[in-house]
Amino acid sequence: MADWGPVVIAVVLFVLLSPGLLFQLPGKNRVVEFGKMQTSGVSILVHTIIFFGLITIFLIAIGVHINTG
């Protein structure tokens, strides 16, 4: 049996937290911008910290597992 939980959670969070795709925090003109598709170094850093925090919560604290087979 394979555990697909970490893979699914990581892919979903990566897509949702890609800077500029859905939202960008901090934006160039405002604190939060939606759908701009432009990023900055600070925005990448903020989204990386959010990604690390959420993946730690889902995989270590909650322990999400999706077993197949």
TrEMBL record:
The chain crosses the membrane at residues 6-23, 44-66. Coiled coil: none annotated. InterPro entries: DUF3339. Keywords: Membrane, Transmembrane, Transmembrane helix. It comes from the Eukaryota. The keyword Disulfide bond does not apply. PANTHER family: OS05G0103400 PROTEIN, PROTEIN, PUTATIVE-RELATED. This is Transmembrane protein. It comes from Phaseolus vulgaris (Kidney bean).
